[in-house]
Amino acid sequence: MELIIASVLFIALMACWFILPGHSEVVGHTPAVEPMGTTSLTPTV
Amino acid sequence: MINGADTAWILVSSALVMLMTPALGFFYGGLVRQKNALSTIMHSFFMLGLVSIVWALVGYSLAFSPTIDGVIGGLSWVGLTGVGLEPNADYAPTIPHQAFMIYQMMFAVITPALISGAFAERKRFKAFVIFSLLWLMLVYVPVAHWVWGVGGWIRVLGALDFAGGTVVHITSGVSALVCALVLGKRVGYGSEPMEPHNATLSILGTGMLWFGWFGFNAGSALGINALAVSAFVNTHLAAAMAAITWMTASWVRHRRPSVLGASAGAVAGLVGITPASGFVTPLAAIIIGFMAGAGCFVVVEMLVRGRVDDALDVFGVHGVGGIIGALATGIFATKTINPAGANGLLYGNPDQLLIQLVAVAVVGVYAAVVTWGLLMLINMTVGIRVSPEEEARGLDASQHGEAAYQI
Q1: Do B284 and A2 touch (CB under 8 A)?
Q2: Domain count, chain B
């Protein structure tokens, strides 16, 4: 009984991961994670 | 007779549970705004000092010394009088009594700290100290005696709580909800962004909590034995299942697989399995992890929609997770795992679920009523909430005169 319930729940979760769209697919683009030109490795002038 | 391996395991477990309190500080600290990071961490860190001393002076005696009518312990162990290096046969016959005492101390330390997430970013430090001290003595200590003390009335009733689902998480979670309602919303709640200032710090805190939780649950076997292994395995599986459940729920609801959601889910799973960890099979632990991850997610969403400013979801995660875990224990418990326990509903004993329900209801109502009374009392005396100006400056500056970051 417990094996069946646990297996069904896990398979259902995995099914969601295959079906659900990624975040960038939802918003239409991949948002920048940090502003360009502000890190110490990127000259700003 | 003292067993060296058992003693070593309980000392290591005590250290693991001790680590959970600063870990909680990191978990909470990363979730608040930068101006409140240090004060939020302090709400956990300070408990290591305050509660440890109170526990040694009087708390342990009232919680665990011989009972007075099943309601409270006596004063025979005040100041650790009689709590020596010989085992106490009633609680842990193979380790020194002081090892059991300090292991229980770490539980007492983290429980008031859990509540602090509900009133983060707006409670006066002075009020926090007084509240935590009184709450420890009037809520935690009596409930610990009822559930775990020899002769405690809930223990006599037959309720199962292996590692503190009722004693730690329901008391703190329900009290957190009362705190959130009494203190009210933070200034700007719902109208301005209150994003976590450091998500990575929170994830670090979650990882440390997960690590420490092995001591919390497996250590509750009070020896290094098969029961400890069972609790260890169950703890990990429930946390894992709850993490992926919450993340998936977040993905469905908000269209993104939230990292902080997976983190909150892991904590929900750890909470959910806490009362059951020494009574259920690994497969039941996976199911309980799912129940905790999904159930806590739904309640947190409802609280946000209802505009209840439980700032760091203490009720949603600890209160609800604790209730789910306590009831699930009444469903999935089996004496094949722990002969000293009881069978649950699935193993032919529906009465166990009823007993668990009674324990949850009584402890929840008691914690809520006493917490409300304490908050009213403190508000009438020293005042419970910082001024709007202090709240705007942030608690790090207004309460402690320090800053979390100098960058």
Answers
A1: yes
A2: 1
Report residue A37's pLDDT band, with 50, 70 and 90 as the boundaries.
Answer: very low
* Residues of chain B positioned with their CB less than 8 A from the CB of A6: 283, 286-287, 290
* 8 Å CB contact of A1 and B257: no
Look at residue B257 and tell me if it is in a domain.
yes
The ipTM value here is: 0.85
Residue B329 near residue B279 (C-beta atoms within 8 A): yes
- Cβ distance of A17 and B248 shorter than 8 Å: yes
- B407 is a domain residue: no
**What confidence tier does B193 reach under pLDDT thresholds 50, 70, 90?**
confident
In the numeric block, which tokens belong to residue A33? 């994670």
Distance, CA of B354 to CA of B345 (rounded, Å):
9
Residue B406 lies in a domain: no
Say which amino acid occupies B303: L
- Contact between B249 and A18 (Cβ < 8 Å): no
pTM, whole model, 2 decimals? 0.94
Residue B275 lies in a domain: yes
* Interfacial residues of B (vs A; Cβ cutoff 8 Å): 241, 244-245, 248, 251-252, 255-257, 281, 283-284, 286-287, 290, 332, 346
Q: What CATH number did the domain enclosing B233 receive?
A: 1.10.3430.10
Summarize pLDDT for B80-116 with one digit per residue, the tens. Answer: 999 999 999 999 999 999 999 999 999 999 999 999 9
What residues contact B193, with CB distance under 8 A and at least 6 apart? none
Segments of B44-183 assigned E as strands:
67-68, 72-73
Residue of A nearest to B255 (CA): A23
Structure confidence by residue, pLDDT tens digits, B143-186? 999 999 999 999 999 999 999 999 999 999 999 999 999 999 99
Residue B9 domain boundaries: 4-400
Q: What is the pLDDT of residue A28?
A: 67
Helix B282-305 with B226-254: angle, nearest 10 deg:
40
Q: Is pLDDT of B129 > 90?
A: yes
- Single out the residue of B96, B13, B27 nearest to residue B260, CA to CA: B27
Contact B353, B324 (CB under 8 A): no
Q: Residue B5's closest CA among B69, B88, B99, B110?
A: B99
Nearest-CA residue of chain B relative to A8? Answer: B287
Is the pLDDT at A14 greater than 60, yes or no? yes
Residue B227 pLDDT: 98
